[in-house]
């Protein structure tokens, strides 16, 4: 059983499903509304737990009704919430998500997530030190992202940096990550480069090894000093792409001990399953579902 620590955000997703996205100033009748637990940190924690990992989450919730629901939901998924702070007089994070034609648009209000601190990361030193991998994203403060990278590096624990929402980071920070997992736009933003530049060139310029996600094209990955290899996507009928990246990152962390090519292959398969149902967590697979897909469709990494 892999031991994973996730440092990141916890949100309540407010999801509206519509036949298309409205134009600016337009009022459009939607088809469905629902509230779904989310946040990149919580999503990755749940996805990893469903894949059989022992998972601890470092994060923060408000003292509102959403905070209670989110905390109880994480516990029900088997996530250790010992290091999830409950903040008085503070709202829990929310994400307003519009879904149309298999795509999504998202507006995030961090609230309690903005108050996840480096001190919380340090307080989780013991559990981080025992972890097989640590996941961190950028819906929390950058000082806490930095603290996670530095602590993981000091303890010799691989830290996977999911740079979303993306912004430019110092090369020194990136050098502390075992892997960064951006899409092409996120990688360009991370490096302060032109998004139109060839992604292979961007990968070579990155200060750390990159696992680059490219949606329906699958993923590209490279160890330090090596040229990028390609993992094909697993074709599925897309219902909702929300949470696909979180599922990918979780699976990458859970299976990292099997070697990078195998971990990327399984991450692509898990991400494919995740988009076949509505909601960030609706399609996040369990181990048996992932094994079944891999048995039916097993594309080999392409050079």
Would you kindly provide a written description of the structure presented here, covering whatever features stand out?
This protein is of the alpha/beta class. It has one domain (3-19, 33-296): UDP-N-acetylmuramoyl-L-alanine:D-glutamate ligase. It has eleven helices and 13 strands. The strands form three sheets. Strands 5-4-1-8-9-10 form a six-stranded parallel sheet, with helices on both faces. Strands 3-2-6-7 form a four-stranded mixed sheet. Helix 10 crosses helix 11. Mean pLDDT is 93; it is low at 299-303.
What's the number of structural domains? 1
Which structural category fits the helices and strands? alpha/beta
CATH topology: UDP-N-acetylmuramoyl-L-alanine:D-glutamate ligase
CATH superfamily membership, which one? Answer: Ribokinase
Strand content: 15-25%
CATH architecture: 3-Layer(aba) Sandwich
The N- to C-terminal Cα distance equals 30 Å
Estimate percent helicity. Answer: 25-40%
| Structure annotation, total helices | 11
- Please report the first level of CATH classification, the CATH class: Alpha Beta
Structural Rg: 18 Å
- Mean pLDDT over the residues: 93
Using DSSP, what is the number of strands? 13
Helix-strand topology string: EEEHEHEEEHHEHEHEHHEEEHHH
> Which spans of ≥5 residues are poorly predicted at pLDDT below 50?
299-303
Spatial strand order of the main sheet = 5-4-1-8-9-10
Largest sheet: 6 strands, parallel
Shape: globular
């Amino acid at each position: 059983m892999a031991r994973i620590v996730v440092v990141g955000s916890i949100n309540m997703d407010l999801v509206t499903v519509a036949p298309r996205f409205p134009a600016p100033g337009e009022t459009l009748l939607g088809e469905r509304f629902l509230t779904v637990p989310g946040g990149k940190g919580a999503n990755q924690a749940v996805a990893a737990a469903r894949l059989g990992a022992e998972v601890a989450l470092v994060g923060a919730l408000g003292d509102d009704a959403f905070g209670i629901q989110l905390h109880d939901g994480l516990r029900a998924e088997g996530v250790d919430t010992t290091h999830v702070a409950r903040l008085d007089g503070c709202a829990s994070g929310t994400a307003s998500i519009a879904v149309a034609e298999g795509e999504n648009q998202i507006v995030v209000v961090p609230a309690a997530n903005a108050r996840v601190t480096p001190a919380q990361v340090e307080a989780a030193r013991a559990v981080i030190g025992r972890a097989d991998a640590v996941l961190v994203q950028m819906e929390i403060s950058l000082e806490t992202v930095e603290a996670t990278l530095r602590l993981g590096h000091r303890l010799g624990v691989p830290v996977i940096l999911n740079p979303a929402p993306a912004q430019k980071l110092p090369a020194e920070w990136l050098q502390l990550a075992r892997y960064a997992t951006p899409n092409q736009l996120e990688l360009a933003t991370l490096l302060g480069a032109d998004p139109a530049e060839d992604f292979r060139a961007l990968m070579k310029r990155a200060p750390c090894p990159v696992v680059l996600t490219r949606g329906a094209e699958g993923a590209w990955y490279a160890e330090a000093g090596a040229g990028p290899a390609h993992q094909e996507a697993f074709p599925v009928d897309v219902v909702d792409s929300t949470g696909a990246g979180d599922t990918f990152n979780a699976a990458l962390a859970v299976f990292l001990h099997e070697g990078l090519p195998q971990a990327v292959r399984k991450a692509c398969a898990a991400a494919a399953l995740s988009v076949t149902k509505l909601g960030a967590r609706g399609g996040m697979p369990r181990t048996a579902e992932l094994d079944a897909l891999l048995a039916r469709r097993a594309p080999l990494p392409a050079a």
